[in-house]
């Protein structure tokens, strides 16, 4: 049995040598088409209510749910667990050849075993994908229930599996109201906290696997973080000027949420600062007080301005 460390090493080498990550998706989709087009299982899902606009893909077999005909196989091109498992199978069956070309050739030669209706590995790979699908469905269904309650007169449109508005633009749900539509990306969160720093910054910090840079402000208006098990949610605007991506799983929002059912105790988050002898000599460590006084003045001005506006 091949080790995880070898799989990671091969994957790292695979991309280091210049194999573009985005070439893998079209390659996998081509293998699926070669199998399922001749079987009459290649096409688009029906779109009776303008909530299911898919591209071409596998249909009518291994569906996402009882309500879908769009196949789980269509997710194989982007699911990292599926890629890792295929590399593991490849290395176990081809210990002499671990090159990227060898891997692609192996997939092509074994596509029926990997992706076919009766393939040796098909159900195993589908199982890896279903974990993500079941979790995603639960999160989105909870989000729909919250939005429907909050906006009883609006239409809450959740797109079907494989819809291009989801796969291409990152839109999970659209909230349609007279004269206005709001596009929402739904993500599970691990933690949410409210913080302030010694220099006066205040922000909400969300622990969730989200790369905010993937979602254009033109397409996605709102990030909605949910935890169905705890029945908690929080929504923030997709305003890149007010968002800071700290790490792959840490995002900071420098403005209040749009709405939430959470309560927060704002905690201080210290930042480490060190001053050189020269900086200390010129009194730069005293900038904190000046900064806070300036922020206080600006906040008071803004409050006065808002209070004079007609309601």
Describe this structure in words.
With 311 residues, the chain is α+β, with helices and mostly antiparallel strands. It has three domains: 4-131, no CATH class; 152-268, Trna Endonuclease, Chain: A, domain 1, CATH 3.40.1350; 277-307. The chain contains nine helices and 13 strands. It has a six-stranded mixed sheet, covered by helices on one side. Strands 10-11-7-6-13 form a five-stranded mixed sheet, with no helix packed on it. Strand 4 and strand 5 (180-188) form a beta hairpin. Helix 3 runs antiparallel to helix 6. The radius of gyration is 25 Å and the shape is elongated. It starts with a helix and ends with a helix.
Summarize the structure.
The protein is of the alpha+beta class and 311 residues long. The protein has helices at residues 4-16, 24-36, 80-93, 100-109, 111-115, 122-150, 164-167, 277-281, 287-307, and strands spanning 42-43, 57-58, 155-158, 173-177, 180-188, 191-196, 202-207, 222-227, 232-237, 243-247, 250-253, 259-260, 267-268. The protein is elongated and about 70 Å long.
N-end to C-end Cα span: 69 Å
Strand order of the largest sheet: 3-4-5-8-9-12
Number of strands: 13
Mean pLDDT: 84
Determine the number of helices (DSSP H or I, runs of at least 4 residues): 9
Q: Provide the structure class.
A: alpha+beta
Number of domains: 3
Helix % is: 25-40%
Which term fits the overall shape? elongated
Radius of gyration: 25 Å
Let me know the largest β-sheet: 6 strands, mixed
The sequence of SSEs as H and E is HHEEHHHHEHEEEEEEEEEEHH
Please mark out the parts with pLDDT under 50 across 5 or more consecutive residues, or reply none: 272-286
Strand content: 15-25%
């Amino acid at each position: 049995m091949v080790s995880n460390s070898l799989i990671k090493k091969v994957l790292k080498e695979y991309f280091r040598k210049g194999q573009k990550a985005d070439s893998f998706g079209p390659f996998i989709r081509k293998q699926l088409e070669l199998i399922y087009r001749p079987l009459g299982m290649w096409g688009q899902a029906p779109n009776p209510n303008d909530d299911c606009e898919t591209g071409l893909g596998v249909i009518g077999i291994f569906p996402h749910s009882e309500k879908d005909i769009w196949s789980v196989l269509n997710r194989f091109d982007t699911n990292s667990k599926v890629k890792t498992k295929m590399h593991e199978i490849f290395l176990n069956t081809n210990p002499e050849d671990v090159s990227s070309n060898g891997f692609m050739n192996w997939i092509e030669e074994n596509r029926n075993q990997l992706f076919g209706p009766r393939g040796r590995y098909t159900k195993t790979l589908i199982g890896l994908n279903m974990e993500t699908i079941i979790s995603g469905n639960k999160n989105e269904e909870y989000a729909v229930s919250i939005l429907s309650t909050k906006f009883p007169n609006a239409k809450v449109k959740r797109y079907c599996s494989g819809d291009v508005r989801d796969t291409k633009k990152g839109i999970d749900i659209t909230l349609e109201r007279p004269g206005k539509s709001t596009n929402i990306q739904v993500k599970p969160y691990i933690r949410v906290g409210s913080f302030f720093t010694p220099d006066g910054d205040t922000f909400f910090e969300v622990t969730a696997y989200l790369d905010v840079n993937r979602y254009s402000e033109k397409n996605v208006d709102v990030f909605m973080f949910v935890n169905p098990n705890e029945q908690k949610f929080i929504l923030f605007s997709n305003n890149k000027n007010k968002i800071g991506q700290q790490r792959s799983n840490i995002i900071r929002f420098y403005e209040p949420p749009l709405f939430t059912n959470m309560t927060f105790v704002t905690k201080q988050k210290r930042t480490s600062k060190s001053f050189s002898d020269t900086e200390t000599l010129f009194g730069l460590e005293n900038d904190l007080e000046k900064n806070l006084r300036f922020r206080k003045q600006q906040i008071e001005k803004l409050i006065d301005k808002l209070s004079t506006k007609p309601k």
